[in-house]
Amino acid sequence: MSMSNTKRVAVLFFAGAFAAAVAMAGQTQPQAPTLPKKSGATGQAATTKKAPVAARTYDRTLLKPALLKDKAPEQYNVKFVTTRGEFTLTVTRAWAPLGADRFYTLVKHHFYDNASIFRVVPDFVAQFGISAYPAVTNAWKGTDIKDDPTTQSNKRGYVTFATAGANTRTTQVFINLKDNTFLDSRGFAPFGVVDADGMKVVGMFYDQYGDNAGPDQGKIETQGKPYVDKGWPKLDTIKSATLLTSAPAAASKPATVKPATPNPATATKKPQ
Predict the structure, then answer these.
(1) Contact 187, 163 (CB under 8 A)
(2) CATH 3.30.460.30 holds for 70-244
(3) Domain ranges of the chain
(4) Which of 23, 100, 118, 223 has a Cα at 20 to 30 A from 163?
């Protein structure tokens, strides 16, 4: 697991590996359930050449997260378009209100668009939530939200924020690829779920880099998507994540009423 000086290196822990996540220089790294991860990008040659910066196609309001305080609807759907296909995530605010509000805000402003699904561990989790754009990632450092009580179980298809300990959720989330109920007692509070058809798409995400040969999360934060694309071209990408709004109710068709025959003696002409 990379121990960069950023605070947003989300890695999930199995029982017995929690102590291994103690952050370097006194800082705790964000974690999500996982196998212990080696430092650095395993199998990647060191280089001093700076990766090209991704084009600035993001919503500029993402650079001012303090101004983004949306309250989510009680339930909402998010459509993900990925390099493997499409799936829909249903969020229920009552499950984890603070998490649901944060996720709603991020999706509303297209935080996840063009982001890599940078960590897929077979039969465990698929994780994403580092922006494709370093400036955006940097802006969201230190925007931790408090924990929600865990009211749902981390079952297959359930979606949860990654953490680095208590009250450290920011932008990274993971989709459970199987029932990971052992996470329930560790503060991982699901806020939404992908349906069965959607999980067929999620199940196709490229997972052969696993936890030992994937990209360094700190370098994704500082170099953006070009770093991932160059070293791990098979990783899948979220092309877009969009809020789905319900179509307005169709207006009632007025009943056809046969006009009464006017009384010539009393009828008056009204303006058209």
Answers:
(1) yes
(2) no
(3) 70-244
(4) 223
